[in-house]
Amino acid sequence: MTMPASETPLLEIQGLSVEFRARRAAPVQAVQDLSLTARAGECVVVLGESGSGKSVTAKAVMGLLEGNARTTAGSIRLDGADLLADPAAMRAARGRDMAMVFQDSLSALNPVQRVGDQIAEMFRVHQGLSKAEARTRAIELMRQVAIPDPERRARSYPHQISGGMRQRIVIAMAIALKPRLLIADEPTTALDVTVQKGILDLFRVLTEAGAGLVFITHDIGVAAEIADHIVVMYAGSVMETGPAREVLARPHHPYTRALLASVPRIERPGARTPIPGGLPDPADRPAGCLFAPRCPLATADCTATRPELESLEPGRAAACLRITEVQHVLAQ
Amino acid sequence: MTRYILLRVLLALSVALGATFLIFLVVFALPGDPIQALTGGQHVMSASVEAALRERYHLDDSLPLQYLKYMGGLLQGDLGEDFTGRPVSAIIAESWPTTAKLGLTAFALEIVVGIPLGLWAGLRKGRPVDYAVLGGTILAFAVPIFVIGYTAQILFGINLGWFPVAGTEEGWPTSYILPAVVLGILGLATTARLMRTSLVETLSADFIRTAIAKGMPRRRVIVNHAMRNSLIPVVTYLAIDLGGLLGGAVIIEGIFNIPGLGFQIFEGIKQQNGPVVVGISTLLVLIFLAANLVVDVIYGVLDPRIRYE
Question: Are B213 and A99 within 8 A, CB to CB?
Answer without folding.
Answer: yes
